[in-house]
Amino acid sequence: MRGDRKEPILYRIHPLWLLTGYISVALAPLALAYAQGIEPRGFRDELSSALAMVAFAMLLMEFVLSGRFRAVSGRVGIDLTMRFHQLIARSLVVFILIHPFLYATPLKHTLPWDPSGQYALGLDAASVATGVVAWILLAILILLAIGRDKLPYRYETWRLSHGLGAAAIAIAGAHHAIEAGRYSGHPTLETFWLVMVAIALLTLLVVYLVTPFRQLRHRYRVVSVEQAALKTWTVVIEPLRGQAIDFQAGQFVWLTLGRQPFAITEHPFSISSCPADRPRLGFTIKEVGDFTDTIGALPLGTSAYVDGPHGNLTLSGRTAAGLILIAGGVGIAPIMSILRQLHAERDPRPMKLVYGNRLAEQILYRAELDDLAKRLRLDVHLVLSEPPNLWDGPRGQLDGPVLAQLLDIENAADWLYVVCGPAAMIDSVEETLEKLGVPMRQIVSEKFSYD
Ligand SMILES: Cc1cc2nc3c(=O)[nH]c(=O)nc-3n(C[C@H](O)[C@H](O)[C@H](O)COP(=O)(O)OP(=O)(O)OC[C@H]3O[C@@H](n4cnc5c(N)ncnc54)[C@H](O)[C@@H]3O)c2cc1C
């Protein structure tokens, strides 16, 4: 899109470079240990140390992965970054949990003919204690993360405990590695661990202090709150001074409403207005829980803070003969931003919007969509899974038969597919598109769930 700003080069690092950097850091402790030239022990002992060192390096990089740094998630998107974070967490926990049980050599130093301790682990009480603490905390942290939705805690409580728990694991783990590790006590590897732990803790400082502090200087206020459909609201904010953040149509921000940015009560919401509407930023918010249920009663003038923009559900840098936009429920929010910007730029390409809801009362911006259909080369298909009797549009979920019928276009592979909505809907739509012969590289999607 022409109205899109150019992202700084740091936010455009190619995913292959990111992956190469990630693998290099994960394997660095092995290289540093090998360089020490110590005579290796038996296979099981060496495997146990190696797995623990690689897993610990991966654990420390988890802080950076989940720290919402645009240098990390700018190109691949928050969705994929968080999926990678979760996948890595599950792998590293296995490495670390089996680590103590792999050792073949005894814990205590019992052999009189082995004064150097070559044939014993020779751990002292403090290093065993920090190892056990890190081991138990890690198991708890992962279990709580996997079962988060079923816990009787607020998301914010879980998030704070997750961050603090991870910090405790990093510190205890580093103590254990340096004091008990055969290789990690060496100055080069010890320095490596200390630098890595410092970076990990620094990311927490950035997320919880530096970023909120920066937001404080750029306060917004709520200028309108209007009901847009059943249980869904359009909230508009504008900055007290100066211009709103620079963003690309389709991106999202972490929004804090009515609280200080340090309160850790921010929630991710797509910007549903378009860059051309700045300095105003509009959001389309559906009531689903303790925070969003209060949106309709938000007083005008309420202070707002914005961390962003984030996400790569944008048309920027992607060429396409035409656009297929597929939204489920409030997933229409970023797609409205894209459509509004396309309209502001008089984009001449053919477009199709397939927009699924359960009920007719849930359809958002219906009049505006009708209007956009007249002004752009846009076909709008509203799909309902529980339609009223007189409904003459398509019925059902956004599944294979419905999409196949609506997306019957020539040269489907040359079009760009932008998909947004709940996680389950995205998975099913992506699978269907693949079956319809759409290459994955032509699909850009964003799930409205962040863990
Ligand atoms: C990238 C992205 C863009 C989104 N855009 C929109 C949008 O435009 N409109 C819209 O209505 N919804 C959007 N959402 C979903 C929205 O963030 C959640 O519905 C909202 O945070 C729920 O908060 P709650 O306290 O009311 O509900 P709760 O009942 O507390 O939470 C419901 C679920 O929402 C998620 N959630 C809750 N709080 C947070 C938080 N602070 N940070 C991250 N996730 C949280 C958790 O998965 C939780 O299980 C988006 C989500 C993501 C990840």
Helix proportion range: 40-55%
Please state the CA-atom Rg, rounded to the nearest Å.
26 Å
Q: What spatial form do the alpha-carbon principal axes imply? A: elongated
Mean pLDDT: 90
> How many domains would you count in the coordinates?
3
- Order of strands in the sheet with most strands: 4-3-6-1-2-5
The hetero compounds bound to this protein are:
flavin-adenine dinucleotide
Q: Tally the helices.
A: 11
Multimerization state? single chain
Low-confidence stretches at least 5 residues in length (pLDDT < 50)?
Answer: none
Strand fraction band?
15-25%
End-to-end Cα distance, whole Å, is 30 Å
Structural class: alpha/beta
Order of helices and strands: HHHHHHHEEEEEEEHEHEHEHE
Strand runs, count: 11
The main sheet comes to: 6 strands, antiparallel
InterPro entries: FAD-bd_FR_type, Fe3_Rdtase_TM_dom, Flavoprot_Pyr_Nucl_cyt_Rdtase, FNR_nucleotide-bd, MRET, OxRdtase_FAD/NAD-bd, Riboflavin_synthase-like_b-brl
Pfam family, one: Ferric_reduct
Membrane topology: Multi-pass membrane protein
Keywords: 2Fe-2S, FAD, Flavoprotein, Iron, Iron-sulfur, Membrane, Metal-binding, Oxidoreductase, Transmembrane, Transmembrane helix
Helix-strand blueprint:
Elements: H1 15-34, H2 43-65, H3 70-73, H4 78-102, H5 125-146, H6 155-180, H7 187-216, E1 220-229, E2 232-239, E3 252-257, E4 267-270, E5 281-286, E6 303-310, E7 323-328, H8 332-344, E8 350-357, H9 366-375, E9 377-384, H10 400-406, E10 416-421, H11 423-435, E11 443-447
Parallel strand pairs: 7-8, 7-10, 8-9, 10-11
Antiparallel strand pairs: 1-2, 1-6, 2-5, 3-4, 3-6
The site of flavin-adenine dinucleotide has 24 residues, from β4 and β5.
Cofactor: FAD; [2Fe-2S] cluster
Keywords: 2Fe-2S, FAD, Flavoprotein, Iron, Iron-sulfur, Membrane, Metal-binding, Oxidoreductase, Transmembrane, Transmembrane helix
Domain FAD-binding FR-type: 215-316
